[in-house]
Amino acid sequence: MITIAISKGRMQDDAIALLAEAGVRLSAAALASRKLALEDESGNYRFIFVKPADVPVYVEHGIADCGIVGRDVLLESEADVLLPLDLGIARCSMVVAAIDPKVITRAFGMLRIATKYSRIAGSHFGTRGIPVEIISLSGSVELAPALGLADAIVDLVETGRTLQENGLKVVEIITESTGRLVVNRASYQLKAGEIGRLTDAIEQVVQGASAK
After folding, report:
1. What does the alpha-carbon distance between residue 126 and residue 148 come to, in Å, rounded to a whole number?
2. What pLDDT score was predicted for residue 107?
3. Rounded CA gap, 8 and 175, in Å?
4. Weakly modelled stretches of the chain, pLDDT under 50
5. 99-to-22, 158, 201 alpha-carbon distances in Å
6. What are the chain's domains?
7. Residue 121 · residue 75 · CB < 8 Å
């Protein structure tokens, strides 16, 4: 049996739909269940549903053979996993945003950056030689500039509506993020046949979608 870790939340439905097209399907009863570990209809695959940040942890440690998670999570975690496929789902942008876009260029001293992505933010500004104080928040980072906690934020943006509603403008795009299939290194060797068939089936679906 191959265990697949799925990110709960915004990517979950797209991931399940993509896997179903690849022949890995959950029954209607399973989809209606609130269980966090489910078997597919064939009994060859087990799904475990975990928080996005936990997907690379489960895969790296071999609890899951593979997983589906956003590139943003992978960049932040720096987990030691294989990344065979860009699935093209849940497309978003990692951005720097501020009330006044010029704050980045005219700031004196250290910039205060509020974010859930401390590693990504630190690396981005570090490579540009801009000193920053990273203020780690677990949610509602958009409030930080308006309340004076930070000069700018680094966050994942899908439509930009939340930024606009909080008076923020995109200063720059750090990187793009899509859902990725990640694989445990040991599973890639020990279950080469099973992982290969799953990867090939998913890749065919992805290529078919991009051709449309």
Report:
1. 23
2. 63
3. 22
4. none
5. 44, 18, 45
6. 2-90+178-211 (3.40.190.10), 92-176 (3.40.190.10)
7. no
Structure tokens at 89: 């789902």
Amino acid at 46: R
3-state SS, the chain, equals CEEEEEECCCCHHHHHHHHHHCCCCCCHHHHHCCCCEEECCCCCEEEEEECHHHHHHHHHCCCCCEEEEEHHHHHHHCCCCEEEEECCCCCEEEEEEECCCCHHHHCCCCEEEEECCHHHHHHHHHHCCCCEEEEECCCCCCHHHHCCCCCEEEEEECCCHHHHHCCCEEEEEEEEECEEEEECHHHHHHCHHHHHHHHHHHHHHHHHHHHC
Pair of tokens at residue 153: 């934020």
Tokens 């789902």 label which residue?
A: 89
Reported as a single tens digit per residue, the pLDDT across 168-182 is 999 999 999 999 999
Between the two ends of the chain, the Cα-to-Cα distance in Å is: 32
The Cα–Cα gap between 205 and 94 comes to 26
